[in-house]
Amino acid sequence: MYRCFRIVLLLMAAFLIGCTEKNAETKKTLTEGKRPNILLIVADDLGYTDVGAFGGEIPTPNIDRLAREGLRFTNFRTGRACQQTRVMLMASAGTEAGLEIRPRRAPGTRTNVLKKEWAILPELLQNIGYRTYMAGKWDLGFTEGYRPVDRGFDRSFAMLEGGESHFAEYFWREAIAYEDDGRALKLSDLPSDFYSTKDYTEKMLGYLQAHEGEDQPWFGYLAYTAPHWPLQVPDEWLNRHKGHYDSGFEVLRGNRLKKAEQEGVLPAGINPSTSNMLAKPWAEMHAEQKIRYARAQEIYASMVEYMDAGIGQIIRFLEQTKQLDETLIFFMSDNGASALEEGMWEANPFPVRPLPRDNDLANFGKVGSFIDHGIGFAEAASAPFKYFKGSMSGGGVRSAAFLRYPTSIQSGEVSHLSFTALDLLPTLMTAAGSQHPGAGYYKGRIIKEPRGVSVWENLAGGNPIMGAQPGTIGWAEGPIGAFLRGRYKIINQGAPGNLGTTAWRLYDVENDPSELTEIQDQHPELTQGMIAEWEADWK
What we know:
The chain contains 13 helices and 20 strands. It starts with a helix and ends with a helix. The chain is α/β, with parallel strands linked by helices.
Protein backbone atom coordinates (compact mmCIF):
# COMPACT_ATOMS: atom_id res chain seq x y z
CA MET A 1 0.00 0.00 0.00
CA TYR A 2 2.76 2.43 0.96
CA ARG A 3 4.63 1.64 -2.25
CA CYS A 4 1.51 2.34 -4.36
CA PHE A 5 0.89 5.57 -2.49
CA ARG A 6 4.52 6.61 -3.08
CA ILE A 7 4.21 5.88 -6.81
CA VAL A 8 1.04 7.98 -6.97
CA LEU A 9 2.82 10.86 -5.23
CA LEU A 10 5.75 10.62 -7.67
CA LEU A 11 3.40 10.61 -10.65
CA MET A 12 1.53 13.64 -9.27
CA ALA A 13 4.82 15.46 -8.67
CA ALA A 14 5.96 14.71 -12.22
CA PHE A 15 2.64 16.00 -13.55
CA LEU A 16 2.87 19.21 -11.51
CA ILE A 17 6.48 19.78 -12.57
CA GLY A 18 5.45 19.29 -16.19
CA CYS A 19 2.62 21.79 -15.80
CA THR A 20 4.96 24.25 -14.10
CA GLU A 21 7.51 23.88 -16.89
CA LYS A 22 4.75 24.33 -19.48
CA ASN A 23 3.46 27.47 -17.74
CA ALA A 24 7.01 28.78 -17.43
CA GLU A 25 7.53 28.20 -21.15
CA THR A 26 4.27 30.01 -21.93
CA LYS A 27 5.36 32.94 -19.78
CA LYS A 28 8.76 32.93 -21.46
CA THR A 29 7.09 33.07 -24.87
CA LEU A 30 5.08 36.09 -23.81
CA THR A 31 7.87 38.00 -22.10
CA GLU A 32 10.94 37.03 -24.07
CA GLY A 33 9.57 36.28 -27.53
CA LYS A 34 9.42 38.82 -30.32
CA ARG A 35 7.11 41.55 -29.14
CA PRO A 36 4.98 43.43 -31.65
CA ASN A 37 5.48 47.00 -32.63
CA ILE A 38 2.30 48.87 -31.71
CA LEU A 39 0.73 51.60 -33.82
CA LEU A 40 -2.30 53.29 -32.26
CA ILE A 41 -4.11 55.56 -34.75
CA VAL A 42 -6.83 57.84 -33.38
CA ALA A 43 -9.02 59.95 -35.65
CA ASP A 44 -10.70 63.01 -34.13
CA ASP A 45 -14.51 63.28 -34.30
CA LEU A 46 -14.78 60.66 -37.04
CA GLY A 47 -18.28 59.22 -37.39
CA TYR A 48 -19.08 55.50 -37.23
CA THR A 49 -19.87 55.22 -40.96
CA ASP A 50 -17.36 57.74 -42.35
CA VAL A 51 -14.85 55.21 -43.74
CA GLY A 52 -15.63 52.73 -46.49
CA ALA A 53 -15.16 49.58 -44.40
CA PHE A 54 -17.93 50.82 -42.08
CA GLY A 55 -20.34 51.98 -44.78
CA GLY A 56 -18.97 55.32 -45.97
CA GLU A 57 -18.70 56.70 -49.50
CA ILE A 58 -15.54 58.72 -48.79
CA PRO A 59 -12.52 57.12 -50.54
CA THR A 60 -10.48 55.57 -47.72
CA PRO A 61 -8.65 52.68 -49.43
CA ASN A 62 -5.79 52.47 -46.94
CA ILE A 63 -7.97 52.43 -43.82
CA ASP A 64 -10.33 49.99 -45.56
CA ARG A 65 -7.47 47.65 -46.41
CA LEU A 66 -6.25 47.54 -42.81
CA ALA A 67 -9.80 47.09 -41.52
CA ARG A 68 -10.69 44.27 -43.90
CA GLU A 69 -7.36 42.52 -43.28
CA GLY A 70 -8.02 42.81 -39.56
CA LEU A 71 -10.88 42.50 -37.11
CA ARG A 72 -13.59 45.18 -37.23
CA PHE A 73 -15.51 45.97 -34.03
CA THR A 74 -19.16 46.97 -33.78
CA ASN A 75 -19.30 47.27 -29.97
CA PHE A 76 -16.30 49.45 -29.11
CA ARG A 77 -17.08 52.39 -26.83
CA THR A 78 -15.24 55.60 -25.97
CA GLY A 79 -15.79 58.77 -23.98
CA ARG A 80 -18.34 61.31 -25.13
CA ALA A 81 -15.68 63.79 -26.32
CA CYS A 82 -11.98 64.13 -27.08
CA GLN A 83 -10.39 64.62 -23.66
CA GLN A 84 -12.58 62.07 -21.92
CA THR A 85 -11.53 59.37 -24.38
CA ARG A 86 -7.85 60.25 -24.08
CA VAL A 87 -8.02 59.80 -20.31
CA MET A 88 -9.58 56.38 -20.82
CA LEU A 89 -7.09 55.47 -23.52
CA MET A 90 -3.84 56.63 -21.93
CA ALA A 91 -4.61 55.85 -18.27
CA SER A 92 -7.48 53.31 -18.23
CA ALA A 93 -9.19 55.75 -15.87
CA GLY A 94 -12.65 57.25 -15.60
CA THR A 95 -12.87 60.92 -16.54
CA GLU A 96 -13.88 62.20 -13.12
CA ALA A 97 -11.09 60.24 -11.41
CA GLY A 98 -8.46 60.89 -14.06
CA LEU A 99 -8.46 64.67 -14.40
CA GLU A 100 -7.57 67.58 -12.16
CA ILE A 101 -7.94 71.29 -12.83
CA ARG A 102 -4.81 73.38 -13.34
CA PRO A 103 -4.26 77.02 -14.48
CA ARG A 104 -4.32 77.55 -18.23
CA ARG A 105 -1.67 79.65 -19.97
CA ALA A 106 -4.05 82.60 -20.35
CA PRO A 107 -4.32 84.48 -17.01
CA GLY A 108 -7.40 83.64 -14.99
CA THR A 109 -8.32 80.55 -17.00
CA ARG A 110 -8.11 76.87 -16.15
CA THR A 111 -7.72 73.52 -17.87
CA ASN A 112 -7.67 69.82 -17.09
CA VAL A 113 -4.56 67.67 -16.78
CA LEU A 114 -4.18 63.92 -16.47
CA LYS A 115 -3.32 63.12 -12.86
CA LYS A 116 0.05 61.55 -12.12
CA GLU A 117 -1.55 58.97 -9.88
CA TRP A 118 -2.28 57.04 -13.07
CA ALA A 119 0.56 55.21 -14.82
CA ILE A 120 -0.10 55.73 -18.51
CA LEU A 121 0.42 53.62 -21.62
CA PRO A 122 3.60 55.20 -23.08
CA GLU A 123 5.53 55.15 -19.80
CA LEU A 124 4.47 51.57 -19.11
CA LEU A 125 5.64 50.46 -22.55
CA GLN A 126 8.78 52.55 -22.26
CA ASN A 127 9.52 50.84 -18.96
CA ILE A 128 9.48 47.37 -20.58
CA GLY A 129 11.83 48.34 -23.39
CA TYR A 130 9.68 50.00 -26.04
CA ARG A 131 10.73 53.18 -27.80
CA THR A 132 7.74 55.51 -27.72
CA TYR A 133 6.73 58.09 -30.32
CA MET A 134 3.81 60.48 -30.63
CA ALA A 135 2.55 62.82 -33.34
CA GLY A 136 -0.75 64.64 -33.01
CA LYS A 137 -3.25 65.77 -30.41
CA TRP A 138 -2.48 65.41 -26.68
CA ASP A 139 -5.25 67.32 -24.85
CA LEU A 140 -4.14 66.04 -21.42
CA GLY A 141 -2.16 68.99 -20.08
CA PHE A 142 0.36 71.53 -21.29
CA THR A 143 1.95 72.62 -18.01
CA GLU A 144 5.35 71.25 -17.06
CA GLY A 145 5.15 67.70 -15.80
CA TYR A 146 1.99 66.91 -17.79
CA ARG A 147 3.13 67.12 -21.41
CA PRO A 148 3.92 64.13 -23.66
CA VAL A 149 7.65 64.61 -23.05
CA ASP A 150 6.96 64.29 -19.31
CA ARG A 151 4.63 61.29 -19.52
CA GLY A 152 6.65 58.62 -21.29
CA PHE A 153 7.25 59.62 -24.91
CA ASP A 154 10.84 59.48 -26.21
CA ARG A 155 9.95 61.70 -29.17
CA SER A 156 6.84 63.79 -29.66
CA PHE A 157 5.35 66.43 -31.91
CA ALA A 158 2.18 67.42 -30.12
CA MET A 159 -0.74 69.78 -30.34
CA LEU A 160 -1.41 70.25 -26.63
CA GLU A 161 -4.85 71.86 -26.75
CA GLY A 162 -8.22 70.34 -27.56
CA GLY A 163 -8.39 72.20 -30.86
CA GLU A 164 -6.27 74.37 -33.13
CA SER A 165 -6.16 75.54 -36.72
CA HIS A 166 -4.94 72.90 -39.13
CA PHE A 167 -2.79 75.56 -40.82
CA ALA A 168 0.04 77.80 -39.65
CA GLU A 169 -2.13 80.59 -38.24
CA TYR A 170 -3.33 81.99 -34.95
CA PHE A 171 -6.69 80.56 -34.09
CA TRP A 172 -7.93 81.00 -30.50
CA ARG A 173 -5.42 83.64 -29.48
CA GLU A 174 -2.11 85.09 -30.58
CA ALA A 175 -0.25 81.91 -29.66
CA ILE A 176 -0.19 78.33 -30.88
CA ALA A 177 -0.34 75.09 -28.92
CA TYR A 178 2.26 73.02 -30.78
CA GLU A 179 5.35 71.55 -29.15
CA ASP A 180 8.30 69.60 -30.58
CA ASP A 181 10.07 67.25 -28.12
CA GLY A 182 8.96 69.48 -25.27
CA ARG A 183 9.97 72.76 -26.92
CA ALA A 184 7.08 75.18 -27.25
CA LEU A 185 6.77 76.39 -30.84
CA LYS A 186 6.04 79.85 -32.13
CA LEU A 187 4.05 80.46 -35.26
CA SER A 188 7.27 81.30 -37.09
CA ASP A 189 8.61 77.81 -36.22
CA LEU A 190 5.96 76.10 -38.34
CA PRO A 191 6.65 75.65 -42.07
CA SER A 192 4.65 77.92 -44.36
CA ASP A 193 2.89 74.86 -45.87
CA PHE A 194 2.08 73.39 -42.48
CA TYR A 195 -1.06 71.26 -42.44
CA SER A 196 -1.73 69.20 -39.34
CA THR A 197 -2.42 65.85 -41.01
CA LYS A 198 0.58 66.16 -43.34
CA ASP A 199 2.98 67.16 -40.59
CA TYR A 200 1.78 64.55 -38.08
CA THR A 201 2.30 61.87 -40.72
CA GLU A 202 5.75 63.16 -41.66
CA LYS A 203 6.84 63.38 -38.03
CA MET A 204 5.79 59.81 -37.30
CA LEU A 205 7.49 58.60 -40.46
CA GLY A 206 10.66 60.39 -39.39
CA TYR A 207 10.61 58.74 -35.97
CA LEU A 208 10.11 55.29 -37.49
CA GLN A 209 12.81 55.81 -40.09
CA ALA A 210 15.27 56.87 -37.38
CA HIS A 211 14.28 53.78 -35.36
CA GLU A 212 15.33 51.35 -38.11
CA GLY A 213 18.12 49.05 -37.03
CA GLU A 214 17.28 49.24 -33.32
CA ASP A 215 16.56 46.03 -31.43
CA GLN A 216 13.76 47.53 -29.35
CA PRO A 217 10.13 47.35 -30.45
CA TRP A 218 8.34 50.69 -30.87
CA PHE A 219 5.01 52.21 -29.89
CA GLY A 220 3.63 54.90 -32.17
CA TYR A 221 0.68 57.07 -31.12
CA LEU A 222 -0.62 58.82 -34.24
CA ALA A 223 -3.39 61.09 -32.98
CA TYR A 224 -4.75 62.97 -35.98
CA THR A 225 -6.89 66.07 -35.50
CA ALA A 226 -8.91 65.27 -38.62
CA PRO A 227 -11.79 65.69 -39.15
CA HIS A 228 -12.19 67.84 -36.00
CA TRP A 229 -13.36 71.42 -36.61
CA PRO A 230 -12.33 73.80 -38.06
CA LEU A 231 -12.91 71.93 -41.32
CA GLN A 232 -9.86 72.86 -43.41
CA VAL A 233 -7.82 71.26 -46.20
CA PRO A 234 -5.06 72.40 -48.58
CA ASP A 235 -6.41 74.25 -51.60
CA GLU A 236 -5.84 71.40 -54.05
CA TRP A 237 -8.15 69.20 -51.93
CA LEU A 238 -11.02 71.66 -51.57
CA ASN A 239 -13.13 70.46 -54.49
CA ARG A 240 -12.52 66.71 -54.53
CA HIS A 241 -16.09 66.06 -53.35
CA LYS A 242 -17.88 68.95 -55.00
CA GLY A 243 -21.56 68.26 -55.46
CA HIS A 244 -21.48 64.91 -53.65
CA TYR A 245 -23.71 66.00 -50.77
CA ASP A 246 -26.25 68.24 -52.50
CA SER A 247 -29.04 65.71 -51.86
CA GLY A 248 -28.69 66.22 -48.10
CA PHE A 249 -28.04 64.28 -44.95
CA GLU A 250 -31.11 62.01 -44.87
CA VAL A 251 -30.10 60.53 -48.23
CA LEU A 252 -26.51 60.17 -47.04
CA ARG A 253 -27.65 58.43 -43.85
CA GLY A 254 -29.80 55.97 -45.77
CA ASN A 255 -27.07 55.12 -48.26
CA ARG A 256 -24.51 54.57 -45.54
CA LEU A 257 -26.73 52.30 -43.50
CA LYS A 258 -27.39 50.12 -46.56
CA LYS A 259 -23.67 49.78 -47.20
CA ALA A 260 -22.88 49.24 -43.49
CA GLU A 261 -25.41 46.41 -43.48
CA GLN A 262 -23.67 44.89 -46.52
CA GLU A 263 -20.31 45.22 -44.73
CA GLY A 264 -21.74 43.42 -41.71
CA VAL A 265 -20.88 46.20 -39.27
CA LEU A 266 -24.36 46.98 -37.99
CA PRO A 267 -24.88 45.52 -34.51
CA ALA A 268 -27.63 42.94 -34.17
CA GLY A 269 -30.96 44.55 -33.35
CA ILE A 270 -30.53 47.57 -35.59
CA ASN A 271 -33.49 48.56 -37.72
CA PRO A 272 -31.88 50.68 -40.49
CA SER A 273 -35.24 52.14 -41.50
CA THR A 274 -35.81 53.71 -38.07
CA SER A 275 -34.75 57.34 -37.82
CA ASN A 276 -34.09 59.26 -34.61
CA MET A 277 -32.64 62.40 -36.20
CA LEU A 278 -32.83 65.76 -34.42
CA ALA A 279 -31.86 67.91 -37.38
CA LYS A 280 -34.37 70.05 -39.20
CA PRO A 281 -35.31 68.10 -42.36
CA TRP A 282 -33.19 68.92 -45.41
CA ALA A 283 -36.30 69.77 -47.43
CA GLU A 284 -37.26 72.47 -44.89
CA MET A 285 -33.91 74.28 -45.03
CA HIS A 286 -33.61 77.37 -47.17
CA ALA A 287 -31.38 77.22 -50.25
CA GLU A 288 -28.44 79.11 -48.72
CA GLN A 289 -28.33 76.78 -45.71
CA LYS A 290 -28.26 73.74 -47.98
CA ILE A 291 -25.38 75.18 -50.00
CA ARG A 292 -23.30 76.01 -46.93
CA TYR A 293 -23.83 72.70 -45.11
CA ALA A 294 -23.28 70.62 -48.24
CA ARG A 295 -20.08 72.57 -48.90
CA ALA A 296 -18.91 72.01 -45.32
CA GLN A 297 -19.54 68.28 -45.69
CA GLU A 298 -17.48 68.25 -48.90
CA ILE A 299 -14.52 69.65 -46.99
CA TYR A 300 -15.10 67.23 -44.13
CA ALA A 301 -14.91 64.36 -46.63
CA SER A 302 -11.67 65.75 -48.06
CA MET A 303 -10.17 65.85 -44.56
CA VAL A 304 -11.00 62.17 -44.05
CA GLU A 305 -9.60 61.24 -47.46
CA TYR A 306 -6.41 63.25 -46.80
CA MET A 307 -5.96 61.46 -43.46
CA ASP A 308 -6.35 58.13 -45.24
CA ALA A 309 -3.60 59.14 -47.68
CA GLY A 310 -1.30 59.86 -44.72
CA ILE A 311 -2.03 56.46 -43.22
CA GLY A 312 -1.18 55.01 -46.64
CA GLN A 313 2.30 56.54 -46.37
CA ILE A 314 2.81 54.79 -43.04
CA ILE A 315 1.60 51.47 -44.45
CA ARG A 316 3.96 51.67 -47.43
CA PHE A 317 6.93 52.37 -45.16
CA LEU A 318 6.07 49.42 -42.93
CA GLU A 319 5.72 47.17 -45.97
CA GLN A 320 9.02 48.33 -47.47
CA THR A 321 10.83 47.66 -44.19
CA LYS A 322 9.09 44.28 -43.63
CA GLN A 323 7.41 45.54 -40.45
CA LEU A 324 3.75 45.61 -41.42
CA ASP A 325 2.82 42.13 -40.21
CA GLU A 326 5.02 42.56 -37.13
CA THR A 327 3.08 45.67 -36.12
CA LEU A 328 -0.14 45.55 -34.11
CA ILE A 329 -2.30 48.34 -35.58
CA PHE A 330 -5.34 49.58 -33.67
CA PHE A 331 -7.47 52.25 -35.35
CA MET A 332 -10.32 54.13 -33.69
CA SER A 333 -12.19 57.40 -33.53
CA ASP A 334 -12.18 59.20 -30.20
CA ASN A 335 -15.97 59.73 -30.22
CA GLY A 336 -18.87 60.35 -32.57
CA ALA A 337 -19.03 63.03 -35.24
CA SER A 338 -19.07 66.70 -34.21
CA ALA A 339 -22.22 68.77 -34.77
CA LEU A 340 -21.48 72.49 -34.48
CA GLU A 341 -24.26 74.44 -36.17
CA GLU A 342 -23.66 77.54 -38.26
CA GLY A 343 -24.66 79.83 -35.40
CA MET A 344 -21.76 78.46 -33.37
CA TRP A 345 -19.07 78.93 -36.01
CA GLU A 346 -18.15 82.41 -34.81
CA ALA A 347 -18.03 81.35 -31.16
CA ASN A 348 -14.87 80.92 -29.12
CA PRO A 349 -14.84 78.06 -26.57
CA PHE A 350 -12.14 79.61 -24.39
CA PRO A 351 -12.64 82.80 -22.35
CA VAL A 352 -10.06 84.85 -24.25
CA ARG A 353 -10.34 87.42 -27.02
CA PRO A 354 -11.56 85.63 -30.18
CA LEU A 355 -9.72 86.29 -33.40
CA PRO A 356 -11.57 87.33 -36.56
CA ARG A 357 -13.13 84.60 -38.73
CA ASP A 358 -13.71 84.60 -42.47
CA ASN A 359 -16.63 82.24 -42.97
CA ASP A 360 -17.76 83.50 -46.35
CA LEU A 361 -18.66 80.57 -48.57
CA ALA A 362 -15.72 81.30 -50.89
CA ASN A 363 -13.34 80.92 -47.94
CA PHE A 364 -14.75 77.66 -46.57
CA GLY A 365 -11.93 75.31 -45.63
CA LYS A 366 -9.18 77.90 -46.04
CA VAL A 367 -7.03 79.91 -43.64
CA GLY A 368 -9.19 81.98 -41.29
CA SER A 369 -12.36 79.89 -41.65
CA PHE A 370 -14.04 78.12 -38.77
CA ILE A 371 -16.81 75.80 -39.96
CA ASP A 372 -18.30 72.42 -39.11
CA HIS A 373 -20.87 70.27 -40.91
CA GLY A 374 -23.81 70.67 -38.51
CA ILE A 375 -26.22 68.36 -36.74
CA GLY A 376 -27.72 66.64 -39.80
CA PHE A 377 -24.46 65.47 -41.33
CA ALA A 378 -23.13 64.54 -37.87
CA GLU A 379 -26.18 62.33 -37.34
CA ALA A 380 -25.64 60.76 -40.75
CA ALA A 381 -22.04 60.01 -39.77
CA SER A 382 -22.95 58.59 -36.34
CA ALA A 383 -25.89 56.50 -37.60
CA PRO A 384 -27.33 54.08 -36.72
CA PHE A 385 -26.66 55.31 -33.21
CA LYS A 386 -28.44 58.08 -31.33
CA TYR A 387 -27.11 61.65 -31.42
CA PHE A 388 -23.41 62.57 -31.85
CA LYS A 389 -20.28 63.90 -30.10
CA GLY A 390 -20.91 65.22 -26.61
CA SER A 391 -23.69 62.76 -25.91
CA MET A 392 -23.39 59.67 -23.72
CA SER A 393 -25.87 58.02 -26.06
CA GLY A 394 -24.53 55.66 -28.70
CA GLY A 395 -23.83 58.30 -31.33
CA GLY A 396 -21.39 59.97 -28.97
CA VAL A 397 -19.64 56.93 -27.49
CA ARG A 398 -19.72 54.11 -30.07
CA SER A 399 -16.73 54.31 -32.36
CA ALA A 400 -15.61 52.68 -35.57
CA ALA A 401 -12.54 50.64 -34.59
CA PHE A 402 -10.47 47.73 -35.83
CA LEU A 403 -7.34 45.74 -35.01
CA ARG A 404 -4.86 44.33 -37.53
CA TYR A 405 -2.16 41.92 -36.36
CA PRO A 406 -2.18 38.80 -38.55
CA THR A 407 0.41 37.06 -36.35
CA SER A 408 -2.21 36.55 -33.63
CA ILE A 409 -5.55 37.98 -34.72
CA GLN A 410 -8.14 36.45 -37.03
CA SER A 411 -8.34 38.44 -40.26
CA GLY A 412 -11.25 39.55 -42.36
CA GLU A 413 -13.93 39.21 -39.68
CA VAL A 414 -16.38 41.47 -37.87
CA SER A 415 -16.45 41.16 -34.08
CA HIS A 416 -19.34 42.02 -31.78
CA LEU A 417 -17.18 41.76 -28.66
CA SER A 418 -18.14 44.56 -26.28
CA PHE A 419 -15.16 46.47 -24.88
CA THR A 420 -14.06 50.05 -24.36
CA ALA A 421 -11.21 52.52 -24.55
CA LEU A 422 -10.61 51.71 -20.87
CA ASP A 423 -9.61 48.20 -21.91
CA LEU A 424 -7.00 49.19 -24.48
CA LEU A 425 -4.16 49.89 -22.04
CA PRO A 426 -4.31 46.46 -20.33
CA THR A 427 -4.98 44.76 -23.69
CA LEU A 428 -1.96 46.33 -25.40
CA MET A 429 0.22 45.60 -22.38
CA THR A 430 -0.79 41.94 -22.59
CA ALA A 431 -0.01 41.91 -26.31
CA ALA A 432 3.42 43.33 -25.42
CA GLY A 433 4.04 40.44 -23.01
CA SER A 434 3.55 42.43 -19.82
CA GLN A 435 0.87 43.92 -17.62
CA HIS A 436 0.03 47.00 -15.59
CA PRO A 437 1.91 46.86 -12.26
CA GLY A 438 -1.31 47.46 -10.33
CA ALA A 439 -1.95 49.89 -7.52
CA GLY A 440 1.09 50.81 -5.48
CA TYR A 441 4.45 52.54 -5.74
CA TYR A 442 5.69 53.12 -9.30
CA LYS A 443 8.49 55.37 -10.59
CA GLY A 444 8.55 57.52 -7.47
CA ARG A 445 4.81 57.97 -7.00
CA ILE A 446 1.70 56.16 -5.83
CA ILE A 447 -0.48 54.91 -8.70
CA LYS A 448 -3.96 53.44 -8.99
CA GLU A 449 -5.30 50.22 -10.44
CA PRO A 450 -6.57 50.55 -14.06
CA ARG A 451 -10.33 50.49 -14.56
CA GLY A 452 -10.23 48.39 -17.73
CA VAL A 453 -9.48 44.73 -18.33
CA SER A 454 -7.43 43.01 -21.00
CA VAL A 455 -9.46 41.46 -23.83
CA TRP A 456 -6.36 40.01 -25.51
CA GLU A 457 -7.38 36.44 -24.67
CA ASN A 458 -10.76 37.05 -26.32
CA LEU A 459 -9.10 38.47 -29.41
CA ALA A 460 -6.07 36.20 -29.81
CA GLY A 461 -7.04 32.97 -28.11
CA GLY A 462 -10.77 32.88 -27.52
CA ASN A 463 -13.72 33.75 -29.70
CA PRO A 464 -13.17 37.27 -31.04
CA ILE A 465 -16.34 37.27 -33.09
CA MET A 466 -18.89 37.17 -30.29
CA GLY A 467 -16.91 37.09 -27.05
CA ALA A 468 -18.07 37.88 -23.56
CA GLN A 469 -18.60 41.28 -22.01
CA PRO A 470 -15.30 41.81 -20.16
CA GLY A 471 -16.53 44.47 -17.77
CA THR A 472 -18.69 47.52 -17.18
CA ILE A 473 -18.24 51.17 -18.02
CA GLY A 474 -19.61 54.38 -16.60
CA TRP A 475 -19.59 57.92 -17.92
CA ALA A 476 -19.87 60.91 -15.62
CA GLU A 477 -19.77 64.67 -15.74
CA GLY A 478 -20.99 66.02 -12.43
CA PRO A 479 -24.54 64.72 -11.90
CA ILE A 480 -24.91 63.73 -15.57
CA GLY A 481 -24.00 60.16 -16.37
CA ALA A 482 -24.55 56.82 -18.01
CA PHE A 483 -23.67 53.26 -17.06
CA LEU A 484 -23.42 50.09 -19.14
CA ARG A 485 -23.48 46.61 -17.61
CA GLY A 486 -23.96 43.67 -19.93
CA ARG A 487 -26.88 44.30 -22.24
CA TYR A 488 -28.37 47.11 -20.13
CA LYS A 489 -27.56 50.80 -20.10
CA ILE A 490 -28.89 53.64 -17.97
CA ILE A 491 -28.55 57.33 -18.80
CA ASN A 492 -29.86 60.57 -17.33
CA GLN A 493 -28.50 62.94 -19.97
CA GLY A 494 -31.09 64.74 -22.08
CA ALA A 495 -31.02 65.37 -25.80
CA PRO A 496 -28.16 67.59 -27.04
CA GLY A 497 -28.80 71.22 -26.24
CA ASN A 498 -30.78 70.46 -23.08
CA LEU A 499 -28.73 71.31 -20.01
CA GLY A 500 -29.04 69.40 -16.75
CA THR A 501 -30.27 65.91 -16.01
CA THR A 502 -33.43 63.98 -16.78
CA ALA A 503 -34.95 61.01 -14.99
CA TRP A 504 -32.85 57.90 -15.45
CA ARG A 505 -33.76 55.85 -18.52
CA LEU A 506 -32.97 52.17 -19.09
CA TYR A 507 -32.28 50.57 -22.48
CA ASP A 508 -31.57 47.03 -23.63
CA VAL A 509 -28.72 47.90 -26.00
CA GLU A 510 -28.39 44.33 -27.21
CA ASN A 511 -31.89 44.33 -28.72
CA ASP A 512 -32.10 48.11 -29.08
CA PRO A 513 -28.62 49.46 -29.99
CA SER A 514 -30.15 52.76 -31.16
CA GLU A 515 -31.52 53.41 -27.64
CA LEU A 516 -35.05 54.14 -28.82
CA THR A 517 -37.24 52.19 -26.37
CA GLU A 518 -37.17 53.04 -22.66
CA ILE A 519 -37.76 50.02 -20.40
CA GLN A 520 -37.08 51.35 -16.88
CA ASP A 521 -40.77 50.93 -15.90
CA GLN A 522 -40.51 47.22 -16.72
CA HIS A 523 -37.33 46.76 -14.64
CA PRO A 524 -37.45 49.19 -11.69
CA GLU A 525 -35.19 47.13 -9.41
CA LEU A 526 -32.56 46.69 -12.11
CA THR A 527 -32.66 50.42 -12.85
CA GLN A 528 -32.23 51.39 -9.19
CA GLY A 529 -29.41 48.89 -8.72
CA MET A 530 -27.52 50.24 -11.71
CA ILE A 531 -28.01 53.82 -10.51
CA ALA A 532 -26.52 52.87 -7.14
CA GLU A 533 -23.59 51.15 -8.85
CA TRP A 534 -22.92 54.21 -11.01
CA GLU A 535 -23.04 56.53 -8.01
CA ALA A 536 -20.65 54.31 -6.04
CA ASP A 537 -18.10 53.56 -8.76
CA TRP A 538 -18.19 56.26 -11.45
CA LYS A 539 -19.64 59.54 -10.20
